């Protein structure tokens, strides 16, 4: 990963999702619109949340995004298939970082080339109270441990 945060936090790969590029994902410039990359990342994030039974409960608690970013490195075009790799960083009290890499797969001529990378900070919240709360223990178990710096 070239993202500075991702490199600093040494994230762990937790999920991989393949999906087709759809004709409607393209814009007038003939490539996938920048906003669609966020949809791809969203789908990967939700697929992992579904896989770990982390569906938000509007009457209780769940994950929300407090920021999101994406670096567009190489154009994506229809037709094609992409693979989105999802990585997570170590837990904080109520949050953790997620990172994603988007690559083409198949017969694009350059399979595996990184086309985009992005991520988001995920905060666990109590929805009715509209406040952050500590991450559940079962979520923390899925995240890589904090790396402690040796004492000076």
From TrEMBL:
InterPro entries: 4-hydroxybenzoyl-CoA_TE, HotDog_dom_sf. CDD domains: 4HBT. Pfam families: 4HBT_2. It comes from the Bacteria. This is Acyl-CoA thioesterase.
